[in-house]
């Protein structure tokens, strides 16, 4: 049984899913760190999309800053005979060598522009005028091409009132006009990414499980396959900030974490300055549960615990 219950005696927050201008966030890494420290968090992880903002853990004041990445992956749903994009957060408390992930990242850039062009074409067919040049101009703020940059232009030109509106009604996973990125971008398979995270000494965490247009039965199947690939050290974003006000989703995810042996994680998936950091008061305890399990697994892998047992 995993310890994911709220502990009223421990009020140290951690936010293990944050974005910066290195990908599609709106604050620089230094700004995210400064704002998180000011907000009183005990630990954060910068998890930009498909890259590492930094590779070694840091201590800023009393706050831990953990290297991480949000990996886009391809997940095959056999019943539908179709693939969908699933995100996996990788945390690396002891640091990470980006060279370990060269093959994982190798084919991502190739299809990105084609994906953006497909979205723009669909918008044009609906009478919504957004050009590639406008998206690229917005991209200069972060250097990242993607849907958030398209959303910026939709808002600027009055087609959407805010980011949520742009995603809900035009380009998001749950909008009527959603185009799966996996049709254009060759993301590595989910299981392969999870195994590489573990092989590189990291903690794989299934990101926002309700974000993939899956039924709860399909989510559970995803969780089981995720756990199988990860082994003993695996997490899931149970206390994802947007789920905290939805008792049904929260209850389901807590049950899934306990049923399938995943550690619960607290996260906000913060992109913009107007988004709050994780409000979960025992987020640090949840992180430490994962970190302890990781270090124990790494020691066992090296044979340290086995040797100690033999001496006894």
TrEMBL record:
Positions in coiled-coil regions: none
Membrane-spanning residues: none
Residue ranges of the region described as Disordered: 1-21
Pfam families (alphabetical): PHP
GO MF assignments: 5'-3' DNA exonuclease activity; 5'-3' RNA exonuclease activity
Residue ranges of every copy of the Polymerase/histidinol phosphatase N-terminal domain listed in the record: 14-75
Species in which this protein is naturally found: Blautia faecicola
Protein name: PHP domain-containing protein
InterPro entries for this protein: PHP_dom, PHP_domain, Pol/His_phosphatase_N, Pol/histidinol_Pase-like
SUPFAM superfamilies named in the record: PHP domain-like (SSF89550)
């Amino acid at each position: 049984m995993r310890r994911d219950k709220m502990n009223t005696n421990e009020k140290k927050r951690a936010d293990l899913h944050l974005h910066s201008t290195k990908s599609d966030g709106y604050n620089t890494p230094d700004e995210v760190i400064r704002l998180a420290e000011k907000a009183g968090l005990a630990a954060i992880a910068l998890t930009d999309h498909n890259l590492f903002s930094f590779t070694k853990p840091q201590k800023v004041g009393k706050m831990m800053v953990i290297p991480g990445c949000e990996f886009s992956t391809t997940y095959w749903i056999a019943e539908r005979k179709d693939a969908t994009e699933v995100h996996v957060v990788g945390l690396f408390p002891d640091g990470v060598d980006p060279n370990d992930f060269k093959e994982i990242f190798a084919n991502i850039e190739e299809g990105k522009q084609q994906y953006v062009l497909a979205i723009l074409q669909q918008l044009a067919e609906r009478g919504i005028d957004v050009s590639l040049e406008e998206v690229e101009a917005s991209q200069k703020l972060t250097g990242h091409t993607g849907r958030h940059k398209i959303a910026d232009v939709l808002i600027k030109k009055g087609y959407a009132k805010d980011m949520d509106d742009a995603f809900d009604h035009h380009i998001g996973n749950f909008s009527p006009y959603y185009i799966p990125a996996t049709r254009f971008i060759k993301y590595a398979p989910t299981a392969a990414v999870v195994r590489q995270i573990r092989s590189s000494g990291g903690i794989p965490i299934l990101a926002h499980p309700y974000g993939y247009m899956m039924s709860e039965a399909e989510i559970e199947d995803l969780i089981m396959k995720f756990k199988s690939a990860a082994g003993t050290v695996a997490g899931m974003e149970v206390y994802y900030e947007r789920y905290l006000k939805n008792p049904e989703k929260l209850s389901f995810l807590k049950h899934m974490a306990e049923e399938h042996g995943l550690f619960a994680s607290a996260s906000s998936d913060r992109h913009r300055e107007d988004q709050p950091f994780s409000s979960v008061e025992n987020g640090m305890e949840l992180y430490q549960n994962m970190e302890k399990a990781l270090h124990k697994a790494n020691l066992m892998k090296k044979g340290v615990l086995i040797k100690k047992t033999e001496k006894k």
